[in-house]
Fold each of these.
Amino acid sequence: MSAKTLRVEGVTRTFPGRGRTAPTLALQPTTVSAAPGEFVAILGPSGCGKSTLLRIVAGLDQPTAGQVLLDAAPVTGPGPDRGMVFQSYTLFPWLTVAQNIRYGLAERGLPEAQQAEIAGRFIARTGLRGFEEHWPKQLSGGMQQRCALARALANDPEILLLDEPFGALDHQTRELMQELLLEIWEADRKTVLFVTHDIDEAIFLSNRVLVMSARPGRIKAEVAVPLPYPRDWTVKTTPEFAALKARLMGEIREEVRKSIAAV
Amino acid sequence: MEPLQPVSPGARVVLGAGFFVVFIAAWGLATYGGWVPPLFLASPGKTLVAGWSLLTEFNFAGDIAITIWRVVGGFLIAALMAVPLGLLMGAFKPIEAFFEPFFSFARYLPASAFIPLLILWAGVGEAQKLSVIVIGSVFQLVIMVTGIAGATRLDLVEAARTLGSRRIAILRRVVIPAAAPQIAETLRLVLGWAWTYVIVAELIGATSGIGHMIMDSQRLLDTGQMIFGIAVIGIIGLVTDLLFKALNRRLFPWAVI
C-alpha cells in the first residue's frame, strides 16, 4: 500500500462531566497534517491531550468537532489502514508471538502460507527469530513492544500511530528500540505519527516535531528536524541535535510548569 | 512463616494430607473414646464397614452412578445455556441491560424451594432432578460469566479494532479467549454447587441416588451409612476438582503463572 496524506482539521475533544464535575476540554481546535512518508513527532507534557489526538486519528475516540481525513476519506472508526502500537502491553496473551503477528492477516482472510510468509518477514525484521512460539508473558517488555510493532506493520497500514510505545521501557532498551524503529521506517517510509514526552526521542526519530501545550492541548510550536537520514545514535552528540534540543526544552519546560501548576 | 511467602510443593502435600489425618483422628477420639454415643455418630471403622456393605450388598455403586449422571447432566445443561448468554451479555451492553435485572432477581430464588413445584410439573423423574440443578446454577453462572466477559481488557479490544476486527470477530477472537480460563474456573466452582443441589433433589421424591440412600439410612438410624454417603460426595468432589484444575492448566498454558 502506498502512504497517504493525513489531515487533522480543527479537531477538538471535550469529555463530558460526570455528576457535578464540569466537562473537561482536552483538546483545543487542532490542525495537523502529515505528508506521505513523513515521520511526525507530537511532543507534550503528560496529560496534554496528545494521546487523545492519536486515539481520534486511530478512530478509537470521536472528536467533539472537526474531522480526520486520510487522503480525501474521513475517518469514522478504527481500521487496519491505521496501525497502532500502544504504551501498555497489548499483545494477546493467549496467542504466541507468531500468532499475534498474524492476527490482522487472519482477520483479512489471507491464505495460511501467505500469513506465515509475511509474519516470518516481520519476525526477522524485529529480531524475534527463535521466539515465534513463545507466549507474550515469556518476553521482556522490549520484546513485547517489538512484537506489537511487527503485528501493526504486518497489516501493511498506510499510517502508523505510535502512542509512547517505548514509554514503559528502561533507557537503554528504549534507545535500541528507537534505532530499530528508525531502521524500519527508513526502509518502508510509512507515514508515522509518534506521540512522546521524550525530547531526545522526538528529535532522533522525526522529520518534524509538533509541541503541544499543557491541557487543554493545542499545537503551540512546530520545529523541523533537518538532520539527514539515515541517522544512528551518533547524531545525538552533534551540535545541531543539541541546538534543537535546547529549543524544544525551552518550549516544553514552560508547558510542564503550567501543567504542574494546574494540578 | 512470613506473610505471602510461598510454600514448597512437598510441604504443601504433607500439610494438606496432615489435616485429613488430624480430622479423622479427632473423629476417632470422639467415637472410640466414648465422647459421642454411637447412635449419633458412627466411628471411622463402623463407617467403613457400613460403606463396604452398601457397596457389596445394596448396589450403592448404582446410586453413585445415577447421582453423577444427574450432576453432570444438569451442570452441562446449565453451562450450555449460561455461558453463551453470559458472553453475549458481557460483550454487548444492551443485551446485558435487557437480561441482567431479571437474572439478578432470579439468582436469589432458592432452587430447593422449587422442588414441590417441579414435582408438580415434571413428576419425580429425572427431569425434575435435572431441573433443580439447572435452576440452582444457571442464573448464578450467567451473572458470573457476564462479569468475566465484561471485564475483558479494553486495550486488547482496542488493539483488535486497530487490526481490523469488528463486532463478532472481537467476541470470537478477543472476548472469548480472554475470558475462557476464568469461565473454566467458574464452571469448576458451579459444579460444586450442582452437587449440593442434586442431594437436595434426591432427599425428596427419589428412589435412587446418594441422597436417597442417605434418607433411607436415616430411617434405620445408620449413621455409618449416612457418613459414608456424605464422604463419598466429598471424595468425588475432590477428584473432579483436581481433574478440572489439571484440564484448565492443559487448556490454558498461557494463563499459568
Amino acid sequence: MKEIFDSIHYFCDEFSEDGNFVTIKTKQLKSLSLYLFRDLDCDLSNVVALRAKDGFIIKYLYSYPKKDYFFIVWQNVQDKFESFADDIPALNWFEREIYDLFGLIPLNHPDFRALPLHPENYPIGFHPMQNDEIKDENYGTYEYKDVKSEGVYTVPVGPIHAGVIEPGHFRFAMSGEPILQLEIRHFWKHRGIEKLCEGKEIDKVLKISQKISGDNALSHALSFAMAVEKICGIKVPSFAQYCRVIAAELERISCNLSDFAGVFQDAGYSFGASGITALKEDIMRLMKLLGGNRFFKDFVIIGGISKNIKPYTKEIIAIIKQVNITFDKYKKIMENSSSILERLETTGKIKKQTVKDLSCVGFTASASGRFSDFRKTHPYLIYSKLDFETLVLDEGDVSARVQVKLNDIKNSFKIIKICTNYISQVDKPKLKARYEIKDGEEFGYAQSNRGNIVHFVKIEDNKVVRFKPRDPSFMNWQSIQFAVLGDVMGDFPLINKSLNLSYAGNDL
Amino acid sequence: MIDLINMRFRDKLLSEKLEFRDENIEVLGLELKKRVNKIFKKSFSIREVDTGSCNACEVEINALANPYYNLERFGISFVPSPKFADALMITGALSKNMYPALMNAYELTPNPKFIIAVGDCAMDGGDFKDSYACMGGIRDKLPVDLWIKGCPPEPIDLISGLLKLLSK
C-alpha cells in the first residue's frame, strides 16, 4: 500500500487515513479519479453531494478490491462541476441524479437527460435538495434514443408489466428476431427518500432504510446501522454480530432461492419453480419465527439486535438441513436437464469490460470474471473469521450467474451452521450495546444477495442531515442493456430474472 | 434424459410426493372458492399495479403462488392486463411518476371493478406521506373497496382480506 499512497501523494493537497478509509482532496480530480479507476482497478461505490457552508461538496467513494481500502475523493463545488462520465461510465447515472436533485450542472456530460425526476411530471428547474421555490410550471418531454432504419421496429414495454413485478420502461429496437438495442427508463417509483430522510431522527431513518428495497430490508438496515455505529464509536457485542450474520444469510438464501425459482419458471419448467418457491416459504417462515416478521424488519437496531434468536437454534439447524437436502435435489435436476441448460448457456452475455466500466457488483460481476463480494474483500461483522469459498466464472451468461448464486446459497448454509453453533454455546447473550449519539459522517456497507450496499450517513445534533443510500441495483441496471444485445425477445425475461434487479432500490 | 428419469425414480422425487399443507389456508381457501364460484362463475381475476412500493408487497403477493397457498386452485388468478381484470390490486405510496400510468390502468379496467389497496403505504402514503415525490396514496383518488394493512401483509392476510371483500 505504501507505493500506492506515495503515488496518491503526488496528486493530492490534503491526505488523511482513518482505518481502512483514505480521504483525499485534490485539484487534479480527473487524473486522480482515472488513476484510481483504471490503474488501481478500483470500483466506484458511491457518489454523494452534500451542502456545505459555502456551496456544495461532492464525494466520490472508490473501493479497492485487492486490499481492504476505500478512497474518498472530494471537491468543493459552486453550481457546476466537471463530468467524467465519458471516462468512467459508472459515473453517468450518479452525475445525472446529482443534477436532478441538487441542480449542480455536470459540464460536458455525454447523456444529459433527466433521470429520477421525469420531466413530464416535475416542472423544469425543480431541484428538491436545493430548497428553492419553483418559479414557473413548465414541463418537458423525455427523448428516447430511437433507432431508425428499414426493417427496424420498436417494442415499448411498461411501465406496468405483465407479471406481479415492479414498474419500469423498456424500449427494444428489433431487427427481425435479434435485439439491436435496449433502452431502459426507470425511476417510476422515485419516492424521494434522500430528501425525506433529511433532518429525521435516527430511528425513523432506520425504519425508512428498510423500505428502500423490501426484499433486502435487513441488509439495508445493517449498512445504515453500521454507518451510525461507526460515527458514534459503538462496539456491537459479538453475540449480536453472529446473530446479524445468521439473519443476513437467511435473507440471502431466501432471495437467491426466489431467483432460482424464477429461472426455472422463465425457462418453462414450472415443476422446479413451484418446488423451490416452497423452500423459500420455509425460509420465510423461519424468518418469521426468529424475527417476528417474514422480512427481518426491525431486527437490526443501532448497537445490536432487537430479538434473541438463541432459543431457536434447534429449529434453525433442522430447517436449514431439510432445505439443504431438497435444494440439492433440484440443483441436480437442473444440472442434468439439457433443455434447461440449453436455455441458460450463452444467453445474456455480459463482457468483463462492461462490468468493469459500469462498476457492476455482486454476482453480475463475479459471473463475468470480476470478483465482487464485500464479505471477502472488505470484511465486516465477523466475516473475516468465516471460511467459505466464493466462485468466479468467466462466461458472463445466465448460466454463470445462476451458478454463482447457487454457490452462494451453499455458502450461506455453511455460514449459518458455523454461527448457530457459536451462539448456542454463548451463556449470557448480550443483544445490544449502550451508546450515545455523536456528530459525524461515515460510509456503512453490507453485502446483500445482489451485491454490496453502500450508505452515506451524516449526523448533526442527533438528527440525520444527509442520507445517501446506494443499492446494488443502481450499479447493475445499465448492464442489462448490454446483456440482451443479439438475443431474442423471448430470452429477455430469463436474462432479467438472472440479473434480479430491484426497481425500488434503484429508484429510491 | 434417461439419466434424469432414472435419477427421479431413484430419489423418489415424484410430483405426488410434494405435499404442502397449511390447515388455515385450506379452511379460508375453501370458503373463498365457494364465493368465487357463486359470484364470479369460478374465476376472479386481479391485476396488480405497483405504484411505488418497496417490493416487499410484491414478494408476498408472489408468495401466494407457491404450493403452500396456490391461490389459483381457489379460482383467483393474477392476470397480465387490466382489460380483463375484475379488480385492481394497488401497492405502494403512489409516486408522482406512476400516477398517470395508474390512471390509465384504472380506466382500462372494465366496470364493475374492485379496488384493493395492499400495504401500509397504499392508502395514505405511510412513511412516504411527506415526500415531494409521493401523492399520499390512493385514498382520495380512487374508490377503494378494501384495504389490506400490514408492512407487508402476509399471504394469509391477503387471503383473508380477499375473503372479506367477497363476503360483502
